[in-house]
Amino acid sequence: MSTTEPKLVRISTGPLANPKPAAPKRPISGDAKFNGMKVFEGRGGKVRAGVWESTSGVFQADTTGYIEYGHIVEGDCRIVDPDGTVHTLNVGDPFIMPEGYKGRWEIDSFVKKVYMVAETA
Q1: What pLDDT is attached to residue 121?
Q2: 3-state secondary structure of 45
Q3: What angle do CA 54, 55, 56 make, to 5 degrees?
Q4: pLDDT, position 2
Q5: Cα–Cα distance measured from residue 112 to residue 51, given in angstroms and rounded to the nearest whole number
Q6: What is the reported pTM?
Q7: Which residues of the chain have pLDDT under 70?
Q8: What is the DSSP string of 22-36?
Q9: Separation CA 99–CA 11 (nearest Å)
Q10: Is 116 exposed, middle or buried (0-12, 13-18, 19+ CB in 10 A)?
């Protein structure tokens, strides 16, 4: 009887291998372009992790239906809460966007994060 043991998942933060290009669903200004690379999926797709990067632009976040943990690994950005509170994030900064968070991303040049998303519904 063969049993596959879970193995540690390493996340490379260097150049993305076979990235999936995208653009903001809710752009505000600029022409941000995304690249993403999923490296883990569990619980039937309800939990995902990977690396995401964006060029400059301003766009709305909306985490309805999920919670996101992020960790900035390159570049910097600001995430602005709906009440106007500005959070400047630099390399090494971790953050959590709770379910239903509707702040906005402001990226002047480039940012890359490692993320983990857990669906709540």
Answers
A1: 81
A2: helix
A3: 120
A4: 61
A5: 7
A6: 0.94
A7: 1-2
A8: E--SSEEEE---EEE
A9: 24
A10: middle
User: How far is 109 from 32, CA to CA, in rounded Å?
Assistant: 9
The pair of structure tokens assigned to 52 is: 């995401």
Q: Which is nearest to 50 in space by CA: 84, 17, 23?
A: 17
Rg (CA), the chain: 15
Beta strands in the chain, from DSSP E residues, in sequence order? 20-22, 27-30, 34-42, 47-60, 66-75, 77-80, 86-89, 94-97, 104-119
Please report where in the chains the tokens 């291998």 appear, as a residue.
17
| 37-120-48 Cα angle (round to 5) | 15
Q: How many residues are present in the chain?
A: 121
| Residue 90 half-sphere exposure toward CB, CA atoms < 13 A | 0
Residues 87/111, Cβ–Cβ less than 8 Å: no
Contact 84, 119 (CB under 8 A): no
